[in-house]
User: What shape does this take?
Amino acid sequence: MDPVTSGILIVVALFVLMAIGTPIAFALGGVSLTALVLNQGMSELTYFGETFFGSLASFGFVAIPMFILMGAAVASSPTGRDLYRSLDLWLGKVPGGLAIANIGACSIFAALSGSSPATSAAIGKLGIPEMRKRGYPDGVAAGCIAAGGTLGILIPPSVTMIVYGISTETSIGRLFIAGAMPGLMLALLFMAWTLIACKMAGGYDTPSPVAAAANQIKENVESNMKALVRVLPFLVVVTGILFALYGGVATPSEAAGAGAFLCLALAILVYRMWQVKPLKVVFRDALRESVMIMLIIACAEIFAYALSSLFITQTVAGAIADLEVNRWVLMGVINVFLLVAGFFLPPVAVIVMTAPILLPIILAANFDPYWFAVVLTINLEIGLITPPVGLNLFIIRGIAPDIALRDLLLGSLPYALCMVLGIVLLCIFPGIATWLPDLIMN
Assistant: This one.
């Protein structure tokens, strides 16, 4: 069977398994194993095991469960509540300010947790009911949280950037810096659209009854300032981690381990999480997400090995490289491919399967690999708020099941278009992603 036909059958089989509810890791591993055995015999079982365990035998992967534990410690504590209350203090009285405060809270919480689902859940539980109570349209309330949550895989520290760095053998510290300015740009684009959407809706906040009395306002300010003080130590930890990475003081794994320990200690000391039950939840959530990601990485490596063994990867890469087109047309084709892949697959799986294949093509076309990492990540962010998978949409749906699905989808669509605009701006002004890494790391 020729490589093109084999590739089509493998992709179809993969989508069929996912459509019937098979976990992504098992779908990748099952399709890969079946394809290898059918084409090359039972001897491939030996290479299957070696590839599975060998793909995880990298010290760099230690950073992943550590950053996830750090995020779980933040997400399981009242940090999100305090962050939300603090930003509401400063922005809640500005027209459309509560929605902007939610996006700002998502941006900061994304830096603390590094997880898009955790960001959407932590801020959404507080922000969506409050915005609806103050008269915000359902689409704006749900859409801004879903979109703000996607920043978790772009703003450093980011687990997906770690996976990209290990898969492509590029500097993780430089990747983190490259994601900072584009993350801020997307947050500003989200805020700009939120203001426009609020004005189009004809109004924003319905004044809170609590704000009517002066003494209650004073108590509210004092309470929110105390909340801000509780959040500051976590922000200091994240800043210290990034400084250690950028300054060459520690490796990503060492920085992640220190960050996990410090955030866990702060959660215990600041929020008095002494009991076994809350700590059990933290470790349970961290273990569950870590195992899921590591399984996806291992099975995606097997999938990539199967495609390479059947000469599918080489055929596709050769066909793309042989396209006699302008390099920006080539980049457009790659973006469409990544966008479609992000609709169906989680970001980690897409990165592990495609980044090693696409990187040589990107370099041959004279594109910066760190700039491309940001473009790739934004494409995958779009997949988090678009059907059919749309992980953040499922989280928002669980938080506010009474919001009509139509309102949720229409509310998220403009933010997806903001991300497309962000990719266009990165193509026109690549320095948005490359200027800061060049400045800091020469």
Q: What stands out?
A: Residues 230 and 270 are 7 Å apart (CA to CA). Residues 206-219 have pLDDT under 50 and may be disordered. Residues 276-309 form the longest helix (34 residues). DSSP finds 20 helices and no strands in the chain.
